[in-house]
Amino acid sequence: MRYIELIKVGFLLLLFPAHLTVYGQAEVEEIRPDLIDALRAGGLVVVMRHAQSPAESPQGSQRNGDNPDGERQLDATGRQQAYLMGEVLEKLQIVFEQVLSSPAYRTLETARYLGFQNIEQRSMLGNQGMQAASGVAGEWLLEQTRQASDTGNKLMITHSPNVAAAFPDLQPPIEQGEILLFDPRDPSRAPLGRIRIEQWEGLQNN
């Protein structure tokens, strides 16, 4: 069951009809079937960078009503893509038993548009002023990829500096909305694969 308010999302799509098919005119690589199978089987750890968010903080009426401090927030594309991704996850019966998030508004907003309610905030996933993440934060994130949930998958929503600190050899750098999949049982510590947020659209009508 999706928990995001459907009226709010519907109103968003009326305001921004151009984003109904965000990448509809571009050729997007399909998600590898083995990655979907692994997610459906459960037991993976997934690291996600928050969905698309402008670098500038919102001003005046652009600020969401539940964003009183004027933190960075998702734009229309970010909200639409996160909502669509959540729909596909539910349709494919991909279960996340545990959802951890940075305390930053844009990461929590991403989690809500994905359809999650029980979101656990972790300071180690925070943006730390968007400066270089500390070695401690990177080590913590890396260690978390080795710890699976009892059932289902574990999702961690964070920021690019933290991902870069934990996985310095990752190339190209993680994009907004992209996920990295890890099998805690794999001693190589390398991701099983990567899925960009626009790729989920290809599974919407499957």
Describe this structure in words.
The structure is a single chain. Helices cover 30% and strands 13% of the residues. It contains six helices and six strands. The two termini are 19 Å apart. With 206 residues, it is α/β, with parallel strands linked by helices. The protein has helices at residues 6-15, 33-41, 76-91, 105-114, 135-144, 160-166, and strands spanning 45-49, 96-101, 119-121, 153-158, 179-182, 193-195. Helix 4 (105-114) links the parallel strand 2 and strand 3. It is globular and about 50 Å long. The chain has a six-stranded mixed β-sheet. Mean pLDDT is 87; it is low at 3-8 and 10-25. The longest helix is centred in the middle third of the chain and has 16 residues, at 76-91. The protein has a single domain (6-21, 36-54, 68-203), classed as Rossmann fold, CATH 3.40.50.1240.
Question: What's the short story on this structure?
Answer:
The chain has helices spanning 6-15, 33-41, 76-91, 105-114, 135-144, 160-166; strands at residues 45-49, 96-101, 119-121, 153-158, 179-182, 193-195. By secondary structure, it is of the alpha/beta class. The two termini are 19 Å apart.
Q: SSE layout and pairings?
A:
Elements: H1 6-15, H2 33-41, E1 45-49, H3 76-91, E2 96-101, H4 105-114, E3 119-121, H5 135-144, E4 153-158, H6 160-166, E5 179-182, E6 193-195
Parallel strand pairs: 1-4, 2-3, 2-4
Antiparallel strand pairs: 1-5, 5-6
